[in-house]
Every structure is written in structure tokens, then in C-alpha cells.
Amino acid sequence: MHFQSNFEHRKRFENQSSRAFTRQISSPPAAKHSFPASFIPVFDPVIQNAPTLAVVPQYLQVHAFANSLYSFDNINITTNNDVSESSWQVVDNPAFAVLLDGHFYLDDVNTIDAEVNLQKFLHKISVSTLAKGLKSIAGGLFNLVIVDKERQKLLVTGDKYGVMPLYYWESESGFFLSGNPFAFRKVAKLSEESVVEFLKYGYLPFAKSLFQNVERRMPGQTLTVDLESQRLGKTPPAIFEFKPPVYREKELPAAGEKVHDALSRYFSRFDDADYHIGLRDDYASQLLTTWLQRFRPNLWNRGASKSALKLARHYNLPVRPAPVNWDLLPDFSDDIARHTRLAISLEHTDVFDWQHRASHSPDSFFMDELSGDCIMGGQSFLDLPNDVRGMISHIRGEDKFNTPIKSINHYQRLLYNDVHALPDEELGGILTLGYECWFLNAARGILEINRLAGHTHEDFRESLHNFTMARSLSVAKAIGVQQHTACSSPFLDYEVLQSCLDTDKSLRASDRLYNYYWNTYFPEAAILPNELWGRNPLDAPQIYRFKEAARMITRQNLVSGKNMATGKTAVNPDAEARKFLQHPAVKRWAADAIDRHDRRIPDFIANQIRRKNTEKQLNPRLMLRYITLLSFLND
């Protein structure tokens, strides 16, 4: 396919806000953009797991796409892969055609089978309305393309949390969609701001993608292409829905029962043995395994595998940790763009997960930031205590939750100083004042979208967390194997998540709901998930809170690197990255990669990286991020 390269840079940062995913506030009409007179949507999964949908003029050459997935009138959806290898499913009737990437399920269909739900969805929108059909989706991880044949419209949507990536690019040639941003690496220029952002954070909390004009569908957003009027429209983003604090569930038994009922309904859909995570087919084993989402060895932290082995022995589950094959790392780096749909640094990438997929024996996968310990416990969304009085209050159980919203500058700096951000001085010569201002303005844009997210400081933090880290970093391991398995996380179920969001923060933020759930419904296994964090549910409340406070102090104390109570060295991300880079196989690969020249990377960035490396002043995490960026661009 040929593309025209002359396009203008369009920077759109939506500042509309929404109080809920399903109930959006009043806002100006979405912007419209014109396209050429005739269209041929082209479906092109050039990169594995990265199908590309394009709307292009009739005169453009499309003969390279030999295999047709779907055609109707002037609509021709094709692929240059074998049709049987496509991750998309296609169903149609005289009124609609529906293409699904991933899996979803409906509120009135008691199965998680994507094919069954897709047929039911097609029937529903045919006999009722498209709006009612979309409203009937109960959860899942998916992208959905709907062709309305009668109205000559194309509608593109996905899961309402914005987890499943979907990127789009507008040019004079037409409108292009892809589930993988690297599908555009040959036709779109790198964005300097995005490159600097990637080097600072190791992922993209603010930018839509690494490339100019390539944007990502925001949570709750729907894209529409009118084939007759030649226009693209998009709805405003949407955000989490929180009840006012006075209406939230404040009693543990009632809150725990609501969560349990919602989880039970979710797992009741698993009536086929093929969808039982490959383990025992009872509710407890599914749920316990989902909680142990980190049982696979990651690059640095293998501690969670101990808890997984305990769980395996307790329930006779076939779980065993496996070592990373370091010799495969260069091959992984060469193919990294094929195995992720997000721009994330190697330090955040699960190499073992890639090896597992490469062996053609896919397993279940889990969502780190959409799993029970985060949603029910809520710890990842809160500010850590930073003074002695706060610590004492925490130990005594006098914490104050449902606190008022703070100043906009507080949240702006909070996003800028992300936990994964390198200090500005480590990016000397790369991070100029102009880029710092760009990041702060981008953070302000996200704040504007989420400014009505909730009623409290904790609500705001939770919504911001979903818009930045959760959907742009922590879910990366889940994306690549989506076509192989139907079960991701029960917390992608809309009812399950909402039952947690409707619980008072005083129950969630102090882990009371999380611990109550396990002790009430699975007491024989309650200690297993808690061991992931070194907690014991039998501890007295004050002892537990003291241990939690000590853990927070240790996490912050990265300068001295010592925990005064135990004498053990605290986790230092730079030290861990340096240790990883010292492995002989990694060291050889990194040395070869960092000397590679790629003209797409701005000279001032490449020169500064090489200079710092020569002078032995290159931060190890910065090195990992730079060579990951080179791997992303490797053709």
C-alpha cells in the first residue's frame, strides 16, 4: 500500500470531562474532519496481533492485500496474512457487519465464548438499535468495528476502560486504524516530545503514541466514519463513575457480599472447560490464580513464584516457575514490536511471558492494575504518608479517607513526578525546559478530562491512575496473548469493578475489604494472596498497620538503600537495571544496540546518549529505554 507523507501535525488533547463511562456530561459537538470522496476500508494485520483498518481513496493501490476478510459495495476489508491467522472475527448480515479483536460478553448471555457473544450481538443490533446493543456489553478486553451498511457508517469502539489499545492516524491519504502503534513506523514520523517522554518514564503516560499524528482511542471514546459525508467524528473521553461518599457502602459484610456476588456471576459464564484458565474448573482455583497474576518470573522480581508454588501444592495445580532463557533476549528485542501493543521499556516487559507465547503454548494472563489487590485494596492510588504524625495516625487506625480535592498544581506535579520517572538531571541535554513544559501541559490536559472523576482526592487519584499508568503500562503483558484465551481478569467485568467503586474508601484504601473477602469466602487460602505482600491476616490490626507503615518507609528510602529494622537493602530500580545489564548475554546485546544509528531518532538525543555512555554516565534505566526504543523501530 502506498501512503502520502505530506501531512500536518494535529495536536488534539481533549479537555472535555465526563462523570461516568456511560453517562457523559454536556459538551460541544465532536470535531469533524473531511476525507477524500471515495473509500476502501483496508484491514491489514502487517504486524502480529496488529490488524490495521484503513479508509483510503479508490485510486490508491491495494493489490498487495490478497486475502479478503469482508467486502460489501465499496467496502473491502482485506489482509496480507492468511485469513485463518487473523486475530479478528467477522460476522455479518444484510444490515451490519461486526469485526471483533479480543473477547467480550453480553449481560444476557451466560457464556464468555466470544464467537457466541458476537453472533448474539449482531442479532441484537439488527432487531433493536445499535445503542442498545453496545449498552448490553457486560465486560471484556476488545476492539470492535461495526459497519452499518444502510447508513454507510463505520463505528469503532472498545472496552470502556480504554485498556485494549487502538491507534488511529489521519493523513491526506485517508484514515487508518491499528491495534499496534508500530504498524505506523514506516509512514509516520517520530514525535520528539514522545521520544523524550518515553526516555523519562519508560512508557507514555501523556502522549497518545510515539508517532506524529498517530493517536490512541481514549477510555469510553467512540470513533465514527461517515462514508457519505466523508467525515470522522469522535465522542469525548469518559471516566470512572463514583457515587457521592454518603451513598457508598460503608459496612464490610454488605460490601463483601456485593463483590462476591458479582465475581460469582462472572465465573458462572465459564461453562466450557476450555475457558477454565487451564487449571481446576472450580470457582476458587480460578479466582486464586487470577490473584496470583505475578507468578511468572519477571526480569527482576521472582519472589511471587514462591507463593504460586504454595498455592500449587495446596490445590494440586500444575504450576511451576521456569527460568528465563537469556540467549533468546536478542531475538526478543528484534521482535518486540510484534509482541506488544504498547510502547513500554524492556524494564517493564515480561520476557518469560514472551517465551511462553513463542513456544505456542499460551496460558491465561492477568492484569496487574485491574486485579483484586489493587481494586479492592486501593493502595496503588493513594499518596504515601510523608510525616511522623501521618505514620502514627496510620498505625493507630486514625487515617482520614474521603479527603477533599487538592489544588490542580498538586496533581500536575504528581503526574510529572511519576514513580517510574527518571530525575531531570539524568536527562541533561535531552530534557529541555520546552519539553518539561510540554509534559506539564499534557498532564494538565489529563487533569481536565478527569476533573469530575469523583468527589474526593482518592477518587481523583484512582481515575488519573487508570488514564496513565494502568492502561499505558501495567496491562502490557495482557495484550499480546488476547487472541489465545478468553479469561483476562474478572475486574474487566463492569459489574465487578463497579461493586468495588461503590464501596467507601475507608474500606478499600486500608485493605479491609480485600482481607475481609478472603477470610470470609476462602478462609483456607486467605494467607496465600496476603503473602504476596508479606501480610498475615491473623495479625492484630495495629500490628498489621505498623508493618504496612514500615513497608512504605522502606519503599521511599532509596537514597541510603537500607532498612534500619532489618539491615536489608531497599529496592533501587537503577541498581536492579544495572544488575540486569551485567548479564553477559544482555551486556553483549546492549553494547551492539546502543551503537546502532537510526535516522528517525533526533540527533541531539542519540548524540547525548552515546556521549553519556562513553563517559560512563548513562543511567542504566535510560540505557534500557533507549535500546528498547531502537528495537521498536527495527524493521
What is the CATH topology of the largest domain?
Glutamine Phosphoribosylpyrophosphate, subunit 1, domain 1
The biggest beta sheet reads: 7 strands, antiparallel
Instruction: Write the CATH architecture name of the largest domain.
Output: 4-Layer Sandwich
Question: Number of helix segments?
Answer: 23
Structural class: alpha+beta
Distance between the termini: 16 Å
Describe the 3D structure.
This protein is α+β, with helices and mostly antiparallel strands and 635 residues long. The protein has 4 domains: 33-234, Glutamine Phosphoribosylpyrophosphate, subunit 1, domain 1, CATH 3.60.20; 240-318 and 365-402 and 477-556, no CATH class; 324-361 and 562-635, no CATH class; 403-468, no CATH class. 37% of the residues lie in helices and 12% in strands. The chain is built from 23 helices and 14 strands. It has helices spanning 114-127, 130-135, 192-201, 252-267, 283-291, 304-315, 329-334, 351-358, 372-375, 388-396, 408-416, 433-450, 457-474, 476-479, 494-501, 505-508, 512-521, 527-531, 541-556, 573-581, 584-594, 603-614, 620-633; strands at 33-34, 40-43, 52-56, 67-72, 75-79, 88-92, 96-106, 137-148, 153-158, 167-171, 174-178, 214-216, 223-226, 231-234. The strands form 3 sheets. A 7-stranded antiparallel sheet has the order 1-14-13-9-8-7-6. A 5-stranded antiparallel sheet has the order 2-3-11-10-12, with no helix packed on it. Strands 4-5 form a two-stranded antiparallel ribbon. A hairpin with a 2-residue loop joins strand 4 and strand 5. Helix 4 (252-267) packs antiparallel against helix 15 (494-501) and helix 10 packs antiparallel against helix 19 (541-556). Residues 1-51, 54-66, 274-281, 293-305, 360-367, 478-486 and 555-570 have low confidence and may be disordered.
